[in-house]
Amino acid sequence: MTSPNHPFLAACRREKTPYTPVWLMRQAGRYMQEYRKLRAEFSFLELCKRPDLAAEITVTPVKRLGVDAAILFADILLILEPMGVGLEYSKDDGPVIHNQVRSRTGVEQLVEFEPAEALSFVFEAVRKCRVALDGRVPLIGFAGAPFTLASYLIEGGGSRNYLRTKKMMYTDPGAWRALMERLAHALAKYLNAQIAAGAQAVQLFDSWVGCLAPDDYERYVLPYTRATIAAITPGVPVIHFSTGTAGLLRLLRAAGGDVIGVDWRVDLDAAWERLGYDVGIQGNLDPVALFASPKEIRRKVAEILKRAGGRPGHIFNLGHGVLPETPVENVIAMVEAVHELSAR
Amino acid sequence: MTSPNHPFLAACRREKTPYTPVWLMRQAGRYMQEYRKLRAEFSFLELCKRPDLAAEITVTPVKRLGVDAAILFADILLILEPMGVGLEYSKDDGPVIHNQVRSRTGVEQLVEFEPAEALSFVFEAVRKCRVALDGRVPLIGFAGAPFTLASYLIEGGGSRNYLRTKKMMYTDPGAWRALMERLAHALAKYLNAQIAAGAQAVQLFDSWVGCLAPDDYERYVLPYTRATIAAITPGVPVIHFSTGTAGLLRLLRAAGGDVIGVDWRVDLDAAWERLGYDVGIQGNLDPVALFASPKEIRRKVAEILKRAGGRPGHIFNLGHGVLPETPVENVIAMVEAVHELSAR
Questions:
Q1: Which bin fits A269, alpha (ψ -120 to 50), beta or left (φ > 0)?
Q2: Cα B90 to Cα B43: distance, rounded to the nearest angstrom
């Protein structure tokens, strides 16, 4: 059993910790040789669906990097596959949704499903992770937030301007509402099943919501993110993460979460002040900073820790996922710097 | 002659105006049939280099839309061509730089040039625009800011993570400094030559600087943007524009500009408060909002005007350029809504 006083879990509750806990988004990923070896043999989706391998991938960086939390190896789009939209991960261009949702009819054609059955491989991976971690560090489960998932369903992949997504919001608010309600409902079930299987905290990724004006966020997104977070098993910390949202912080806070994850494009102290100190904060080193020298990385870590001011409730992380070309030794240097410089 | 009391110029000086002046970035562009017709016959670069056509393209939207300023038809990358880097506009993927700058040697190989000679077609277009506008509205000249131009030179085009740009900043600060100094120097000459030819205000586009952490902006960008702005002919208003910079506002303000252009991802009132009221503000409707109904567009215009609070120094604009698929009638509805709802 992981102790409930483990620094990561204590920081989620804004309790004092002996040092600032640290983990990295995509800490299990292509920048690691161990992972690239597995990917030479299996596709990304195959790895997600093999609980033994998913657990191995989840645990490896905990050993290699000395981070304070594990995050389940999975993907935010897995929940879309049982909806019947035709999910595929292409070699270079990222995820593709073949049957895009563009109308009310499209929303109604989405298959209703029971996460517990359709995504059983995820929960099996959670159980295997907990066994493999053996209480070493807590395990974080996760899912995409309603807006980010809706944007993939509507655009069919990544997007520059989110033209179709916003068009649906503005011109077919009934379809938008139906889609967001359906996603919020499925997400709550999915996250709670991860928790039931052993996830000790969950992170909601609203990775692309930073494309919205604050008024649009408040009207078209906040109610559904709030509903998702409100339905999560009480007592389990929720990290509410997004990028490019320096202008949305108060609204993100209003939507919920015990910890708000921010990216590097805002100063951590300014962000925390705007969020309010009654919530934790996660972040916020630029992933590209890991391409600098270890000395410069250490300087940047110190700067962020200074901005956090030793206040309980800071979890150190990057502002987005580790990039594939990142040198592993620099990641290790970053983790060490966080631990050393924050030791109290 | 345009009156120096024209609403656009008065707003740049934060003087009271009878209504809020409005123009749109890329108001001369692909969403207009007149422009598409010309593009069927000429390449983008050909149009930029034909002062008669560039002037025609500049003036058309002033007549069609009823906006309060014209912006020269040109491109932020034109200044890079005489540096010998091999600039090309590909059909779909945007601009390409063939000889990318990746080192100190690369910086030193950039050709030194006299903007007055190498870019004479730009100044000729400015003169023709002034004649064609016949005092109807002021003419805005423009250029890319040092960071955004450096990112194109280094990455060779657009970029998702600006990995190479930031790597040069972090690991070869001497090369970075040499590049930024050279760009700042050329930009000041270029903008002053536009002003000498007749531009009545200038906008500096730091379109991609929102990818930076505030500390990196302050260290690696601010001094060069400040030098560029400080060297601009006194008395000519400077609009300092960027996107995704809700977390950088105070630093952008410190770099300079009479008016700070902000995008839609921050509330205009929150942005202006952070900038300080001793500077003007330009913005900030989401370009995608122009795909909503005229009624919804009007509601969004009213919301932005309310946030501006009737304070002198607000210039209405989009938060970035008009998108190619935008319905012209919605642009006209937006301009009318700004004029009607802000009439004092």
A1: alpha
A2: 10
Does the reported pTM lie above 0.95?
yes
Does the beta-carbon distance from B293 to A170 stay under 8 Å?
yes
For residue A254, the enclosing domain spans 43-277
A296 close contact with B: CB closer than 8 A: yes
Q: How confident is the model at residue A276 (pLDDT cuts 50, 70, 90)?
A: very high
Select the residue of B166, B265, B325 nearest A247 (Cβ to Cβ).
B265
Q: Which residues contact A235 (CB under 8 A, 6 or more apart)?
A: none
Q: Is A221 on the interface with B (CB under 8 A)?
A: no
A328 touches chain B (CB under 8 A): no
Which among A35, A50, A68, A75 is annotated as catalytic? A75
Please identify every residue of B annotated as catalytic.
Answer: 26, 30, 39, 75, 152
Contacts of A161 in chain B (CB under 8 A): 287-288, 323
Q: Please report the pLDDT score of residue A146 as a whole number.
A: 98
Average pLDDT score over chain A: 97
Residue B305 lies in a domain: no
Tell me if A266 and B211 make a contact (CB, 8 A cut-off).
no
Cross-chain residue pair B288–A167, CB shorter than 8 Å = yes
Q: Test B270 with A247 for CB contact under 8 angstroms.
A: yes
Residue A10 pLDDT grade (very low, low, confident, very high; cuts 50, 70, 90): very high
Shortest alpha-carbon distance between residue B250 and chain A (Å): 11
d(CA B231, CA B187): 9
Classify strands A238-242 and A201-206 as parallel, antiparallel or unpaired. Answer: parallel
Instruction: Inspect the interface and report whether the beta carbons of B323 and A270 lie closer than 8 Å.
Output: no
Q: Does residue A174 belong to any structural domain of this protein?
A: yes
Q: Confirm if B297 and A213 have CB atoms less than 8 A apart.
A: no
Would you say residue B133 lies in a domain?
Answer: yes
**Angle CA(A225)–CA(A30)–CA(B147) in degrees, nearest 5?**
75
Could you tell me the CATH number of the domain that includes residue B246?
Answer: 3.20.20.210
A337 touching B (Cβ < 8 Å): no
The answer to whether position A21 is within a domain reads no
A273 touches chain B (CB under 8 A): no
| pLDDT tens-digit series, residues A288-334 | 999 999 999 999 999 999 999 999 999 999 999 999 999 999 999 99
Q: How far apart are CA B225 and CA B304, in angstroms?
A: 28
Are B8 and B137 in contact by the 8 Å Cβ rule? The answer is yes
Domain count, chain A: 1
Is the pLDDT assigned to residue B225 strictly greater than 90?
yes
Residue type, A312: P
